[in-house]
Each structure stands twice: as structure tokens, then as C-alpha cells.
Amino acid sequence: MNHNISIFTALLISLLPACSLIGSSYGGHLSRPDEARINISAEPMASFDAEPRSILFRYLAGNSRWEIRQERGIKYAVRREKVMGEYKTTRHGFYSNDDDDSVHQTRVLIAFEEPYGIGRDRGNITRAIAGSDDVAVIVEGAHEGTPGNTSYVIIEGDRLYLEIYDQAPETARQFTKKTIGEVFAELADVLKHQDEIKTTGLIPVESRYPGKRPNSPHFKVSDGMQPGIYLLNGAINPTTPGYVYTRVYDVETGQRLSEEQLTSRSTRYVGWSDSGETFFPYNAEVTVYEGDWSNKYEARFELWHKSEQGNEFKIAEITRMINGWER
Q: Can you tell which superkingdom this protein's organism belongs to (predicted)?
């Protein structure tokens, strides 16, 4: 990425009038309300050069609040949010609620090496350099299929990107501002505890981990929101860096099911410790396309680990009755 262009873009955004509208061929009206401005001057992102970035990656991979995925060659961490009181996985990382007859939808990512983004940039993405003290956030007004006001902010550090999608009734970016403070504080903790992470994969700050950390291995497959959709949950204790993915087989025929889609959607980078005494979380949502909602059949779910060196081994398996997803 050309950092000079990024800096120029951020400077241009901050100089434009707060209430000016930007032309758009489709979508809602774009503006930069005063109440949506953010301050990112007191931040740690610029401190993550190569080694701290790898340590951050390892920390996020070992924390069940986050999931590290890969798509289009980009590795990125999705922050899991609570759904009905529990931290849940969603397919694309978006979380919604419609309390008080108003729709809120959010997504928080940390991307490595290059930004993940949110489709084609129509002038509706705010790009800012970490350390800026006053950034005018672009807010898109309500339009067909998207109620409320939306924004997408990408804060750029040293080949590290914090990305926040914020859809809410008000134009003030309350979720965006709150999230920036939360993530910056977490990044500061990672910088403070780099030595511990390099040994155990963890930081000694219990509040950074949701709930009780696992102390034994497990692998569970639960029903998702529709037949054919399944939630995967596990805990493993690797001693080398790598990723975990799930294979599914038809027990009767031996056929591997939805191989391409399942491999992509179930792959997660996971934490590791030198001793193998620490267990790290695994969460994913997958869809099995073979079959329909009317008929069940027996399937075997297998959890596999693949190291950075390319070595693969099966960690666990579970057999259960499933449906195929029906469009």
C-alpha cells in the first residue's frame, strides 16, 4: 500500500466541511457530521512492527473473544460479540440486534498486512492514519435495505488495520468510539505482556478472556440457525503455530461433504504454547449442502490441525445425524 496516498486521503477527509454531502450513484447520502468525529491520537497501533505483530496474531489466535480467519489471502481477526448473553460466531462477522424497534449492526476486525474492507469503496469508507487527533467519519444515511446510519472506518497502523462497521439510528458513532477505546486498551496490554505471550500464548490479564478458559480438550457440533448449518466448538493444545479446519464425511458412502466451502469456512488460526499444557479455543460456523431439510443422515465431523510446516494430523472426531441445507 502506498502510505503517501493513505496519508493524503486521511488529510483530505479531515479538511472537508463537516456537513458536506458527497455524490453517490446509489446508496444513501454521505456526510461528515460533527458528532461523528473521532480522535485516535492516543493509540498503540504504530508500535506494532514485525515482531509485535506476530505476537499480537498469536494472542488473538488464543483468545476466544477473537477468531482469526483468512480470505482472499488476507489474514484477519473477527471480534466475537454476545448474542443472547453468549459470545457467538457469525459467518461474516456481523452482529445485529433490533432492541427498541431500532436496528444496530456492527463488525470489528483487525486485519494483517492489508485491510480486509467491505466491498467496493463508493466514497463511504473513512480511512485514517493511527495517531490522527481529529478524523471526520463519513456517515451514510438510510437507504433501501439498510435502515439507520452506517459507517466503515479503517484505522491504519504499521501493516495493521482496525476496521469498524457501525450501523445505528443516530449519526454519532457511539459504537465506533467505544470500540476504538476498547481495542486500543487491549493492544496496549499485548505490548506490555509480549514475553508471556511468546511462551504461553496468553497474557496474565483474566479480564481479556471471556468466561473460563478451557483446561481439557473437546470438540462439539451444535445445530445452527437452520437445518444444514452447524456451529463448531473445540479446545486444542498444539505446540506449533498453524491452523485448524473441519472435514465432514457421509458415514454410509464415505463421501467428503462440501469440501471446498467447509474447508474455507471452518479454517481458523489457533494459539499454541511451548509446553502443550495450554488449551486454545476453536469456533466456526459451517454449512453442509448435500441433502435437504426433509431427510437426515449420519455424518462424521473431523477436526484437523495443519502446522506452518505443512504437517497435518486429526485431533478429534464426532458422529451425528445431520440435514443438508436447503435454499
A: Bacteria
